[in-house]
Write a structure and sequence with these properties.
Layout (H helix, E strand, L loop, with lengths): L1 E5 L7 H12 L3 E7 L18 E5 L2 E4 L3 H12 L6 E8 L6 H4 L1 H11 L4 E6 L7 H13 L10 E7 L9 E4 L4 E3 L4 E6 L4 E5 L5 E3 L5 H6 L2 E8 L8 H10 L6
Parallel strand pairs: 1-2, 1-5, 2-4, 5-6, 6-7, 8-13
Antiparallel strand pairs: 3-4, 7-13, 9-12, 10-11
Helix pairs in contact: 1-5, 2-4
């Protein structure tokens, strides 16, 4: 397959480089387009009113001075001239489960590709340090060999989270929904004066609700989590009460 590789950890991050090596050895044709520096938690942001620079650093490798979504837009509209079979984002150094998918540049890059009508997969590993990328990569290649890509559809994303355990210790794969998590001590004060203060977003590791059937439960139990994500933003079930409110107050007659 001809595959576009993107991420939010930066073009030299070990996750994307492990993936690049494994996919190349598996016979796939790759082009790598990724941020020139880490852009974690960039979500679906794009760069406006500022020049974005694209630099070819090797054959089929481009470093972009923008967000993960910028990378996808530039790759699909300027850099790539041939048909792409699949877009893969990751492997992210840290999980993208539950509400994290809303902050994640990794997931957002896959979403942007899907919005262009491409098939897209987002990959993450459940650890902020000492990640076993070899295990996650080996499992992903195995999933591809079993036609994982056939499950992908335009305007949808397959979001995959790997437990950070050795290859042979992974128990299997679970189909999951997104779970929930909370961060405590979410900000750290750097300095504080009478009329101003400086802080950083960070805090403790997230506390997960390991509800049955969720991505967090699966990964915590030693399984690979596969969560299909869709992007119909309208909440149809909210229509009846809102419409009743409109009728009740005769707002249709204004």
């Amino acid at each position: 397959m001809k595959i576009l590789l993107v991420n939010d950890d930066g073009i030299n991050a070990p996750g994307i480089r492990h993936l690049q090596k494994a996919l190349t050895e598996a016979g796939h044709d790759l082009i790598l387009v990724a941020p020139d520096t880490e852009r974690s938690a960039a979500s679906h942001s794009i760069t406006l009113r500022k020049d974005i620079h694209a630099t070819r650093i090797a054959k089929n490798e481009w470093a972009i001075s923008g967000t993960p979504v910028d990378c996808v837009v530039i790759a699909l509209q300027k850099i790539i001239t041939e048909k792409i079979d699949l877009v893969i984002s990751g492997i992210n150094a840290g999980q993208n489960m539950g509400e994290d998918v809303l902050y994640s540049g990794t997931v957002a890059a896959a979403v942007e590709a899907a919005m262009f009508g491409h098939r897209a997969i987002a990959l993450s590993i459940n650890a902020y340090k000492d990640q076993l990328f070899e295990s996650a990569t080996k499992w992903f290649i195995k999933l591809l060999e079993n036609d994982l890509d056939s499950l992908t559809k335009p305007y949808e994303v397959i979001n995959i989270n790997f437990p950070n355990i050795p290859f042979e210790d992974v128990k299997g794969v679970r189909l999951t929904r997104t779970g929930h998590r909370k961060y405590y001590n979410f900000i750290s004060l750097i300095s504080e004066e009478e009329d101003n203060f400086s802080y950083r977003i960070g805090g403790n590791l997230p506390q997960w609700d390991f509800e049955p059937g969720t991505d967090s439960e699966a990964v915590n139990d030693g399984y690979i989590s596969i969560t299909p994500l869709g992007f119909e933003l309208t909440k149809a079930e909210a229509f009846p009460p809102i419409f009743s409110w409109i009728e009740k107050h005769k707002l249709l007659e204004i």
